[in-house]
Amino acid sequence: MTSTETGLAFTGGGIRSAAFCSGILRRLLERNVEVDYLSCVSGGSYAGTAYLDWKYRNGKKDDPKWHQKFFDNRRKRAGYLCRWEKLLEGILDTTILLSLVLLVNFIEPIIMWGSYACPVAYIIDLLFGKYLREERNCNDVAAAKSFSTRDEGF
Description:
α1 (about 15-30) crosses α2. This protein has helices at about 15-30, 45-55, 65-75, 85-135, 140-150, and strands at about 5-10, 35-40. It has a two-stranded parallel ribbon with strand order 1-2. β1, α1 and β2 form a beta-alpha-beta unit. About 70% of the residues lie in helices and about 5% in strands. The chain contains 5 helices and 2 strands.
């Protein structure tokens, strides 16, 4: 008698891969395929680790009853960032996410770098302000340059 073992590999590709691998896993479990080895990369790891977590919580045995519960739970939690089943929750979640993007990308850098920019500007003004505020005329600079070259005999 030969025993056959089944290995399953989930590829990467972000959330699309996680959704695709979840669908493949669901079909295999519906057909009572026993998975002995599991290899996951990147987005496929979402489906693979969720499956293994549920499997170990249920005594390492595949059972169609907990398979259904597992996939129902995944479907219910699919919109964990923005729950649009209820309109007001979706609007609130989206507003919070956009506010975080605004805060992290624009407001926080201004606050952080502003605390460095003000003292540096003050020090530069203190050391070099007199020279920076001096009025210069380009004609004066050109005349001074031509005068100095005539003195050197060129």
